[in-house]
Structure formats: C-alpha cells, structure tokens
Amino acid sequence: LPLPLSGVVKGPALLPIIQADTPAQAVDIAKALSAGGIGSVEVVLRTKEALAGIAAVRNALPDLLVGAGTILSAADAIAAKAAGAQFLVSPASTPKLLEAMIDCGLPFAPGVATPSEIAMAFEYGLTEVKFFPAHLSGGIEMLRALSSIFQQVRFCPTGGIGQHNLADFLALPNVFVAGGTWLTPAALVKAGHWQQISELAAQATAIATK
Ligand code: 3PG
After folding, report:
1. Model's pTM, two decimal places?
2. Is domain 5-208 annotated with CATH 3.20.20.70?
3. Which of 57, 150, 165, 188 has its CA 20 to 30 Å from the CA of residue 26?
C-alpha cells in the first residue's frame, strides 16, 4: 500500500482546496495560503487547467505539499501523478477507484460517508479516508459514532468546514486533517484578494496549531 496521507501532510493539519481557472491563478492562491502558514494543498480537478495548475504550483513552491483532489477515475489518478501531484484525494470510493489509487502508489484518501464505504476501504487495508460531505453526513456527531466502531480509521473531513467549527473537528482523535474551500472562497479568488486569503489561512493555522 502507498504511504498513509497523514505521514506526508506538511504544516498545520489543514488541507485547503485550490480551484483555479489558470495555472497562474493556482500559483497565486498557493502563495497566499503558504504565506498564511499552510504547508499542504489540494488542487481539485474541476477546471480545464487544473493539471497544469498542479505542475505550476509544484514548480513555484517546491516546499509546499501539493495533491490532486476530485479524483474520480483511474485516468484522473494517472494524469494527476504525471502532473506532479504528491497525493490524491477522492470524494468517493468504488472498488475500481480504490484499486486505481493503490496502483498509483501515491498517498491518498478515498471519500466515504457511510459505515459500508469505510468497511470497503478497510477491506483494502486502508485506514485513512476522507469523510465527505462531512457536515451533511452527520459532522462531528457522526465522526464520534464512527470512532467506536472503526477504531483504527482516521478521517479527513471536508464539506461544510469553516473557521467556526474547525477546532471542534480537529479536536476529534479520529481526525488527522481537515479540508475544504473555506480558505479560498471563489469571490476572493476572482477578485484577486490574496492578502485576505493569507489572513484566513493564518487564522486557520492559529486554530489548528493551538
Ligand atoms: C471537497 O471537494 O472536499 C469539497 O468541495 C469541500 O466542501 P466545502 O466547499 O464545503 O469546503
């Protein structure tokens, strides 16, 4: 199996999402996050130039850990690795997807939202998963309930995380990192308000390292 994602995450236990229209924009977002103390980012494959964005961020910020998110197929996993992604994140789990990500060899977190999906990942030997959509799937209470059943499984919750609930998610012993888009709101990205993104990141970093 690939290395666990928790073993490679750099900096605070935060995994902000970068969704960028151009590689240059991805680099601007990554620089802003990095200035706010972030050490790991997830560039999501939701825009045409996302793969080029991964390569550009790797090149511009060699100390940042750069992963690819929204991996939905074996082809996505292979393309992300070729672009320079250092880890993979998926919102979902299917046998095909899990096998593709294992074969890829990069640390990864497949998405789960139910006990059966966690059990499926566990059957593949995987004990680190993304819990998505975290808030809509029961949030902190659900993670507490899952902890008594899946005692070895650790989660990266995403979906509905914000500064207001970040500390509560990170306080759970079965949460190893928290992710999402709250540090990179589309409106700030569109307006190029990099300083505000840095400030959001610094606030989250302070919460995560307390
Ligand atoms: C993800 O891909 O994990 C989600 O976009 C995160 O959801 P959020 O936008 O609520 O943070």
Report:
1. 0.97
2. yes
3. 165
